[in-house]
Structure formats: structure tokens, C-alpha cells
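Annex B. Sample input.
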Amino acid sequence: MTDFRGLLLSLTEGGVNFIIVGGAAAIAHGAARLTLDLDIVYERTPENVRRLVTVLAPHSPYLRGAPAGLPFIWDERTVMQGLNFTLSTRLGDLDILGDITGGGGYGQLLPHTIVLEPFGVSCRCLTLERLIDVKRAAGRPND
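Annex B, continued. Sample output.
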């Protein structure tokens, strides 16, 4: 079970610049939807990646679905050399996305955000209109 509040508090209190997208954003807008993970788009600056790595490190991030024991180093270099990561953490499943289909990265999405309080934590979410656009662009039938 994902502790959405715990993940969001960790990210916000750690000063990470991020935008909630996906199912959690839909819930923040009032949709009656089930989601098992938190999807965020993060700002890919060295300073923000440093904060992201620092905030998540105590929660033991590991590649979701990867075989146990597969070497995985959670550090700034790993994040900067990658883009999108589907992680399991002690607080639950978290997808950190540098870019999303139909929306782009943090800088392109930022003008299409509003501050909401999903799970009781004040943070940026995609606007409902933009969320619908990127969900359509993803072309997944379950969205």
C-alpha cells in the first residue's frame, strides 16, 4: 500500500520541485479513481535532483519489478543518466518522470499547474484540462 501523504510530505519538506501527474492528480481533482502509485514529473536540474536523491534515500528506492539483488545505485549520477524511474520505496510505489508523453518535462508543464492539497499536502498538480490532454496522448485504454 502506498503512503501518498508520506511520499508527498517527504518531497515537499525536502524542497523537491515536482508536479503530480497520473492517477493521484486525477484524485486531487476529485475523480473517484484507484491508483496504486504516485506519479510525479521532477525538475531535472542538478540541485533538484540532489534534493530528490537525498529525500528518497532513507526510503530505500529500488527499481520496481527488478529481480532482487540486481545492482542499483540510487544517486544523482543514476538519475541524471536516466529519465524515468518506476520505484518501490518503503513508503510505496513512486514513478519519477523527467518527461511525459504529450506534456514534456517540468518546465513545459509548470504553466499548466495549480496548487492543490491532495492527501492533505499542498503541492503542484497538473490542471484538469492538461491532465486530460496528456492522458489522451498516452493512448492507454485504462485512462
